[in-house]
Write a structure and sequence with these properties.
2 copies of one chain form a homodimer. The first copy, chain A, has helices at 35-43, 57-67, 87-101, 119-134, 178-187, 201-211, 213-220, 235-242, 250-255, 279-282, 343-352, and strands spanning 2-6, 50-56, 76-81, 106-111, 115-116, 138-143, 154-157, 167-173, 190-200, 261-266, 270-271, 291-293, 297-301, 307-309, 314-318, 323-327, 331-336. By secondary structure, chain A is of the alpha/beta class. The first copy, chain A, has 2 domains: 2-271, Alpha-Beta Complex (Spore Coat Polysaccharide Biosynthesis Protein SpsA, Chain A); 276-358, no CATH class. In chain A, helix 3 crosses helix 6 (201-211) and helix 3 crosses helix 7.
Chain lengths: 359, 359
């Protein structure tokens, strides 16, 4: 099995810990290893033939550094996109590289910035998915929902054939409102769209050929060395390709239209960790029902349900509840948990004031 | 005129900016110069003969460093107490040193950590006070109250003799409750006890001799070099004296009992800056009615009336009002303005957990 990790994302939802040059996947949101490193460590026990990490030029150096410690364990290639074009080009590029060497190679696609509590469970599902993928299916992992989440897209599955799956996907649905999400949760045949996929390289490439001909044509121009894994001189070709293709997600470009999609349910304690507010869903809380990361100590006087990320120092809160407090060397955020979505307004204001050193 | 600056205080009310080795007088509570430096700069235009700064051993080195820039302008002596004994021994020691050189020298005693808006006004009052002091009075400055403060002690003055003063002090009163303070404010003859004094060295020493004989006896054992301002070999004598004397304030030890006390009213924009919550009383507020110090930028999204002290970086607050946010390199405080008095509980907790590096 090949593992493709999509690590080129950017975002502001973990500011100030995350910055333009160090987005969520490259930071230690949960103490210890970064999200990218956790993703790699999650698949290493499966002994993948190779790991391909697709990132962008701005983050390539930091990505290489964070991966260095694993190079003695498995071959890792870092592919730097010249600019972001959403997931379809990244997936297509990785598939083309794998197919040049091993056309029927099974590839697992994983986002680099998701949380998974049950790593063993994930690996079991991926092994089952690989079995289905070998027969020419596009397998997507559907997370068994545990709450009426309005922040996720959903997959509707045809579960008339009982068993553990895979199940055909009958519909992709966008983020629902609360009542709709409650209905999905009760129905038992709706699952969170995780963005984790397993398929053969040739399967996805032929689906791209059918459904995204522009991307397919561009990818077909790639020529490889005799040693396909010598990727260092691909940069020029990739830059040329990315200059011609549009931005598109693999969900919209292929998954929602293909008739080869199957879903495997996964109850693995998954979260996309969409903001600081998500931390209490995935981390143990302390006696004050607070979550503390990256801090040597939290002194909580009459403070409950806080989310604290310190700067390896001490954070003292007095008489504040449900507050997000994040400190880095040069920037500080204080924000109620329910206002986490307004972090983008801080970033807009920093841009407006020309304070780019904090972005 | 000699100026004696009492700079040996300690306290926790500006944690985490203030620490045991850098208490309030040695930090930049209001941006720019430290409180001690502001105190020195306030009296420099009066061209004092000398400035004596009384501090303690823990803070002596930092105190010397902060004063270095003024040594070319006026002679400055730093006297390090071996341990804190409240204000009476510090004042007595300074008076003894001055008297050995210039018995009738007028000395002004100023706390190192107070805020004064109207420096010119202060200097005018001190000049008037020096005039009164030359005639053998103990002059204390009474701050014209501008609010029914419950955090200050008050002086009751006999104002039957009209004019600008000085007025006899008829009573010293402890911190009053709110209703009492309102009465004081309306009465017109109550003033805030500022802890600023002017007197001749021989006057205060003879009052100490009458009212604090133990301290007087101890001070009488001091022997000076022929050049009295060569203070470096006084340390041993001071250590011996401090081993024998008790802790006492000059207010309680002398001022409340002496019949030589006169008060001069001072309307000079004074505050003792008792806590972070006092900052809006003395600093201009911004468009969000917030006060920001030590920060390159405050990004305030739906945030009003905050008190922010950053670490030269950016501080972002979203949807929080009336909050104190203080960040230093290694420590962070978040606390509602009305809970500032509970800062001592943070310090207690740090002590309890053995986190002395943050104290």
């Amino acid at each position: 099995m090949y593992v493709v990790i999509l690590a080129g994302g950017s975002g502001t939802r973990f500011w100030p810990l995350s910055r333009k040059s160090r987005p969520k996947q490259l930071i230690s949101v949960l103490d210890g290893p970064t999200m990218l490193q956790r993703t790699v460590e999650r698949v290493l026990p499966m002994q993948p033939k190779r790991i391909l990490v697709v990132t962008n030029r701005l983050q390539a150096e930091e990505t290489e550094q964070q991966l260095a410690r694993y190079r003695s364990l498995t071959p890792i290639d870092v592919i730097a996109e010249p600019l972001g074009r959403n997931t379809a080009p990244a997936v297509g590029l990785a598939a083309a590289i794998i197919a040049a060497h091993d056309p029927e190679g099974v590839m697992t696609v994983l986002p680099a910035d998701h949380y998974i509590r049950d790593d063993d469970g994930l690996r079991r599902v991926l092994q089952a998915a690989a079995h289905t993928a070998r027969n020419g299916w596009l397998v997507t992992l559907g997370i068994v929902p545990t709450a009426p989440e309005t922040g996720y897209g959903y997959l509707e599955a045809d579960m008339s054939l009982r068993g553990e799956g895979p199940f055909p996907v009958t519909r992709f649905v966008e983020k629902p409102d609360r009542d709709t999400a409650l209905g999905y949760l009760e129905s038992g045949n709706y699952f969170w769209n995780s963005g984790m996929f397993v398929w053969r390289a040739d399967t996805i490439l032929s689906e791209i050929a059918c459904l995204m001909p522009e991307l397919s044509t561009a990818l077909a121009t790639l020529s490889f060395n005799s040693d396909v894994w010598e990727l260092s001189d691909l940069a020029g070709q990739i830059a040329r390709i990315y200059g011609t293709i549009g931005s598109q997600s693999i969900d919209y470009g292929v998954m929602e239209k293909s008739d080869k999609v199957q879903m495997l349910p996964a109850g693995i304690g998954w979260s996309d960790l969409g903001s600081w507010s998500a931390l209490p869903e995935v981390l143990d809380t302390d006696e004050q029902e607070s979550v503390v990361v990256n801090s040597s100590a939290h002194i909580a006087i009459d403070s409950r349900r806080c989310i604290v990320s310190g700067n390896s120092g001490v954070v003292a809160t007095i008489g504040v509840d449900d507050l997000i407090v994040v400190s880095t060397g040069d920037a500080l955020l204080v924000c109620p948990r329910e206002r986490a979505q307004d972090l983008r307004r801080v970033v807009e204001e920093l841009e407006k004031r020309g304070l780019s050193q904090y972005l």
